[in-house]
Specification:
Structural class: alpha+beta
Radius of gyration: 19 Å
Length: 272
């Protein structure tokens, strides 16, 4: 990263790298005019010619432009510099839930609190007909004040848009992917809730709901196998929370919580 630091892109000075994935990179940047610290997301240069990635990037920009919620990392602006499309995002200081899990399972009150905030964000997004489709602990950033920001709408889609291709439908992270997404079927708000359930499972157990030695086996497990009840990993887990997680991860969407608000209301009954 050394060669990137102090490099300028337009009116932004690169201060460091925040993350990197198969599609692009996210940098911590300073706007040299306003002096504000922000996050810049770009498509990797060697992938800039990929029309499918460019389309996904544009879709993410347009979806985020219509969202304004305290638990969703905000889009500041989008611009083109030297024929490269950039997304300027709110810079969120903190650590991801996945990073916190490296130290062990989360206390139940923290897991319920973080999940409730994610569900607030999803309730808002779903009301705007946006399905995230890649909910996982690494996309949940916790600020020093304990506020959760839902990140990375890179494979989100508008609920009234035609579904992505079969290839696009498998882009979500496999440990958290709902059965209907594994099968390339249509996804809806309840698909996000399955992924929230799988994420909450990991938060309280530090275990994934399914273990497998290949991507195929993992996808098959989501479709065919019931998850081991989380209370079997953690005996002190409230029984109500155990049932909530299993309900959220029901194989059939119709058997899960039918809305983020219903899931959130159920969490309010958990005695920690």
């Amino acid at each position: 990263m050394g060669e990137q630091e102090n490099r300028r892109i337009g009116d932004y000075e690169i201060l460091g790298i925040l993350g990197s994935g198969g599609m692009g990179q996210v940098f911590k940047v300073r706007n040299v005019i306003s002096d504000r610290i922000e996050a810049m997301k770009i498509i990797l240069p060697d992938l800039a010619g990929r029309q499918d990635l460019a389309d996904r990037f544009l879709r993410e920009i347009k979806l985020l432009a219509g969202l304004n919620h305290p638990n969703i990392a905000a889009l500041r602006t989008a611009l083109t510099v030297d024929n490269q499309l950039l997304m300027i995002m709110e810079y969120v200081e903190g650590t991801t839930v996945s990073a916190r899990l490296q130290q062990g399972p989360l206390p139940v009150p923290d897991a319920v609190n973080y999940t409730s905030q994610v569900l607030d964000a999803l309730s808002y997004a779903h009301q705007h007909k946006i399905i995230h489709r890649d909910i996982k602990p690494s996309n949940m950033m916790v600020t020093p004040e304990g506020v959760v920001k839902l990140m990375d709408f890179g494979i989100a889609r508008s609920g009234d848009a035609s579904d992505l291709t079969a290839t696009g439908a498998a882009l979500g992270s496999l440990y958290y992917m709902p059965p209907e997404q594994v099968k390339g079927q249509a996804t809806d708000a309840r698909s996000d809730l399955y992924s929230v359930g799988a994420s909450l499972y990991e938060m309280v157990t530090r275990e994934h709901p399914f273990k497998a030695d290949s991507s195929y086996s993992l996808m098959a497990a989501h479709v065919q196998q019931p998850p081991k009840p989380p209370i079997e990993w953690r005996a002190d887990l409230p029984a109500a929370l155990n049932e909530i997680i299993l309900l959220a991860m029901a194989k059939e969407p119709g058997q899960r919580f039918q809305s983020a608000d219903a899931f959130h209301n159920a969490l309010k009954t958990v005695q920690s």
